[in-house]
Amino acid sequence: MEEFISGKKMISVVNIPPSKSYAQRAILAAALSENTTTMQSVGRSADVIALIEVAKKLGATVESNQNELIITGFTHPVEHSLKVGESGLGMRLVTAISAVLDGDFTISGEGSLKNRPMDEFAKILPQLGVTYEQNKANGHFKLFGNAHPAKIEMDGGLSSQYLSGFLMALPLLKGDSHIFVHNLKSKPYIDITLDVMKAFNVTVENKHFSHFSIIGNQSYKIDQVYKVEVDYSSASIWMVYGAIHKGILIQGLNPESVQGDKKMLDALKAAEVNFSWTADGLQIQASEICSFEFDATECPDLFPALVVLAAAAKGISEITGANRLLHKESNRAKVLQGEFKKLGLEIEVLDDSMKIHGTGQLNGGTVRSHNDHRIAMAGAVAAYLTNLGITIEESESVEKSYPEFWLNF
Fold this sequence. Notes:
Elements: E1 2-5, E2 13-15, H1 20-32, E3 36-40, H2 46-58, E4 61-65, E5 68-72, E6 81-83, H3 88-98, E7 105-108, H4 120-124, E8 131-135, E9 140-144, E10 151-155, H5 161-169, E11 177-182, H6 187-199, E12 205-207, E13 211-214, E14 226-227, H7 232-244, E15 248-251, H8 264-270, E16 275-278, E17 281-284, E18 293-295, H9 303-311, E19 314-320, H10 332-341, E20 346-350, E21 353-359, E22 365-368, H11 373-382, E23 390-393
Helix pairs in contact: 1-2, 1-3, 1-6, 3-5, 5-6, 7-9, 7-11, 9-11
């Protein structure tokens, strides 16, 4: 599919979808719960739908009621073949949780997920006494046997999602466990995991993000409605839109959120964008963008929005953390460099650093998303820096996180 964005339409108010990072974790917590959970504002992104189907296959009962999901947890797994779609988070969470459940499991992904590395499981699962087979061509894992309580080590440098998975899984074992983590990146995503677990009355002792002590024999349970937070990752591109065009009111964001992509507000400050919190939401004001420096190591999903923000400045902006982009839905560093070159923007990628040579404007043209939802959204807002607009190819990729995105235009 293609979408053409002229860069002319005025968008003054926008509602942001729920955080799929929160939603996926909460769906699994509810499926593991010993009672019934009412969830609000779950969203209909492809990744969330995939995890709902996993919950059903495990034996949880899932009912929809307007804007609510009512999930009754399972007692024993019903099916042992689980499909997570293209969700990297889903693959890592579901694989870890399957390791502590009864029976052997096959967990499979599709599309771009087949090319994303899952090699850390080869180091973690044997420490828990679980044997496995990995078929990279078909994008699936087979797990044999059940995990036992243990002291395990893992590398958090490539992705924090492995840690999130085992943090959620190990409290279900009969005995206590310990996780020792080296080189952990994306710590805010661990905060999200611990926040969801706490809401479901499962606790972990976090010792400086390097040692996690986990008491066994805990149960997921919640005695109140669980409402999923609005997503800062999706909001980031609208923050840029407001700054480069005529301002925008972004509704629903939690000013006290632990989401890592809330750091987009720090990037706005660095670029001298004017914004304020009001009773109605986050008000972004049209601003004269300045070149800036920003470390996105802990929030790599912000890179596409940051590139558009930097393109709107006159001068060289530098964003560090580019090494975190190699294994997203696309190789985002390479894709951003190549696709924005078509629009007249020079981007240098030097090891872990990205330098954007902004001029304050872009050429019209065509951007291919490479099936990456965040590239598609960045291309749409980049159209407001052009006179002729931009056509986004593979525009359907936004279904992964923000199915309603194109309705705003």
